[in-house]
Amino acid sequence: MYTQEQNELLAKVEQLQKERSISQNEVGKLIGISGTALSQIKNGKYAADPQKVFDKIAEYFGVKEKAQLTYTELKYVSTSISAQIYDIIGACQVKGGLAVAAGDAGIGKTKAAQKYIEDHPTNSILITVNPCLTNIKSLLKVIADRINAPQEKSRDELWLSVARKLSDGQVLIFDEAQHLTLKCIEVLRSFSDYFNDKGQTLGICFIGNLDTVARIGSKKAEFAQIANRTKQKQVYTKEQIRRDDIIKLFPLLEAGNMDKEIDFLHRIARTPQAIRGVINLFSNAYDNEDYSFKGLVAAAKGMNIEV
Questions:
Q1: Which end of the chain is more exposed for a tag (fewer CB within 10 A), N or C?
Q2: Helix, strand, coil % (nearest 5) of the chain?
Q3: Tens-of-pLDDT digits for all 307 residues of the chain?
Q4: pTM of this prediction?
Q5: Would you say 140 and 158 are in contact if contact means Cβ atoms under 8 Å apart?
Q6: C-beta of residue 51 within 8 angstroms of C-beta of residue 44
């Protein structure tokens, strides 16, 4: 019924679904088509022209195949900073209460949180805060959505709905926590207190830029109670990035005894570019098929990075 090329595309869809362990609706969402359309295509019951759907599938896998030809940091790399933040999240989960891990942009904070969620999928939740989540109800709705709690209409019922769905031994991680208001932080603290009063634990870990720890650690009276409840508070800066981190990120440089290139990337990593910028820099040089010292410098200049 279908051409060989079309059948190969359907096989790729099946493989993607198996690799990700996701539903047909979810794999359809990844590709950009509805789960219903995908099901109908598979069963040969799609009423419209199926070629348009196959074109969409082909475009998706075409982009992914091109991505494999470039350098991307697909796997988590345990750098000196990300490893410490990972441990902070773990301690927060075990002890309960509040913890803060703050630092410069691009040093591995989010990577650590994502890895923790990957390793502890059943009892850890990661929520990325944004400027839209500036009121209590919007934040509670996001949490309720993530833990499948009933979306009650009133704020107090929504809080109770979330509290009842949360469980002993969980940890909630809030990335980009600098966007949270004082009232939102107080609400999150109240969940931890709720479990503490029952002799149980719920960890609340805030990850964000330096404003996060500065605010929560403030001597202002309105923050005093929060600061006193914070069991861990650590600050990390780009200057703490080690040369060994560069070797871990780019093992092919060490394999090629490319010490000059490693030193160059280490120096760039300790500027505002940090680790994220260094990965982008190396990726561009790699795509240009020249990640020698000369190639890295050329890529840096092309990115307007001061060398």
A1: N
A2: 60, 10, 30
A3: 788 888 888 888 888 888 888 888 888 888 888 888 888 888 888 878 888 888 888 888 776 665 554 565 557 899 999 999 999 999 999 999 999 999 999 999 999 999 999 999 999 999 999 999 889 999 999 999 999 999 999 999 999 999 999 999 999 999 999 999 889 999 999 999 999 999 999 999 999 987 766 666 555 544 445 555 666 888 899 999 999 999 999 988 998 899 999 999 999 999 999 999 999 999 999 888 899 999 999 999 999 998 8
A4: 0.76
A5: yes
A6: no
